[in-house]
Amino acid sequence: MKLVEVINGIATSKETTEATLESIKALNKESVVSRDFPGFIVNRILMPMINEAVFALQEGIATREEIDKGMVLGTNVPMGPLTLADFIGLDTCLSIMNVLHSEFKDSKYRPAVLLVNYVNAGWLGKKTGKGFYEYNK
To answer: What is the set of active-site residues?
Structure first.
């Protein structure tokens, strides 16, 4: 992964941030800087999108393949949200959604029931061989 998300806490000095950004450059990585806020930048945007894809599957709007294909071709991302969730780990996705829901107290962050059910069944994605797709271990 090329991106490093730098989170500035309330007491983070400008010098610490600058030193961190220089270290990231030395590693040939790119950075974005965020305030210390639930979800930061990437997860705040990505996880609700993945969760919405799970809702679409749960509600029978389309198959997992059609959801992923639509997002790959329609948004020019390298993989669809359900495939990405499997690579991240469904337990990790659920944990992040639970934090967002708890911190913001907004129903738009409530985890999809299907996501909860998959995690409870032990279907965590690629790492367990089964998630939204099946994988050879």
So the answer is: 5
